[in-house]
Amino acid sequence: MMSINRCFAVQSVVLCVALWPGAAPMVHAQDWKPQRNVDIVVNSGAGGSADRQARVAQKFLQALPGMPSVSVTNRAGGAGLVALNFMAQHPADPHYLGILSTGVLTNQITGLSTIRYQDITPLNILVREYIAVWTRSESSITSGRDLIARLRREPSSVAFAFSTARGNQNHVVIGMFARAAGVDPKLLKTVIYPSGGQGMTAALGGHVDVWVGTAGGALPYMAAGSIRVLGITAPQRQGGKFAAVPVFREQGVDATYYAWRGFLAPKGLTTAQIAYWDQVFARVAHSDEWKKELEENAWAEGFLGSADTRRHLDAEYEMLSRMLADLGVVAR
Q1: What global pTM score does this model have?
Q2: Cα–Cα distance between 283 and 265 in angstroms, integer?
Q3: 250 beta partners
Q4: How far is CA 70 from the centre of its chain?
């Protein structure tokens, strides 16, 4: 009787989600559902942006009717390669979900990873997160315009810090500052930290001049008044807790970009398995409760299902290849 109830509950989820435009066809998702614990594998340590995403998603997935247990496992290290290699050891197993982020592409472009983005199953992009650039409150750098002016005078006079690997979205934004200042990106001084927590602590202590990281990471320091956010990389001002923070575009700085994160699965999933996760995550992303989480974590809305995510990865790979060549991370 228990299995019948669980099957009916999952079919109910499918029926609800199939009403949304763009949802995957219902027929396949009824052919498969999780049979055991679903493990969300995080490519960084506890407390970071990816970990927050995983634990919020865990809460939503666990609440769905018929869903078995959902766990979160942190497998940090190697700029995300430890987690990605772990996922590669479980081909065709839809009970493992990994974090899909820019690092999957940049690690391939830079040659750090032999696992290509074509070798995983992209499931979705669930959140967009703009990059916040900030200094500690005592800093003499007061705005995005001020930062660009300093780079024009002396490119190496400002120490930028970010995590966790060369070529990621934070590094890309630093390259945009160099381009806006008209200087060679390779002349900029950058310090890379193994985690956002360590890097932000260093920035607060004045060991580096400017921190470049996800907007959500800046929220507690904004609330405490210990930092000055020079700007964020959104196309226009955001609401909520960032309503008073200028975007770089309004400061005359062409630095518009967002980090994107979602979920991936190992290669080899069936059409039915992909369709199941398409519909489940669509249900999460369209819920009012999820929209509250977006505001609370300074995430931007922008859900993409599996097919659109694959197309997004193709376009991002080309753009990032050009940008990382400009930064001197890879040869042209």
Answers
A1: 0.79
A2: 18
A3: none
A4: 21
3-class secondary structure, 29: helix
Give the angle subtended at the CA of 294 by the CAs of 168 and 297, to the nearest 5°.
65
Q: Taking the CA of residue 139 as centre, how many other CA atoms within 13 Å lie in the half-sphere pointing to its CB?
A: 28
Radius of gyration over every alpha carbon of the chain, rounded to an integer in angstroms: 20
In whole angstroms, give the CA distance from residue 185 to residue 320.
Answer: 15
Averaged pLDDT, groups of 10, the chain, 332 residues long? 35 39 45 96 85 94 95 91 96 98 91 94 95 97 97 97 86 94 94 88 96 92 96 93 95 92 97 97 95 90 95 95 86 68
Q: What is the pLDDT of residue 263?
A: 98
Q: Could you tell me the domains of the chain?
A: 2-129+259-326 (3.40.190.150), 135-257 (3.40.190.10)
Pull the structure tokens for residue 106: 């940049």
In order of 24, 25, 27, 33, 37, the CA distances from 18 in angstroms are 7, 7, 10, 16, 25
- By the 8 A CB rule, do 154 and 231 touch? no
pLDDT of residue 236: 94
> Ramachandran region of residue 143, left (φ > 0), alpha (ψ -120 to 50) or beta?
beta
> What span, in angstroms and rounded, lies between the C-alpha atoms of 25 and 8?
18
Instruction: Compute the distance between CA of residue 155 and CA of residue 178 in angstroms, rounded to an integer.
Output: 8
Give the pLDDT of residue 84. Answer: 96
**DSSP code of 247?**
B
C-beta atoms surrounding 322 within 10 Å = 11
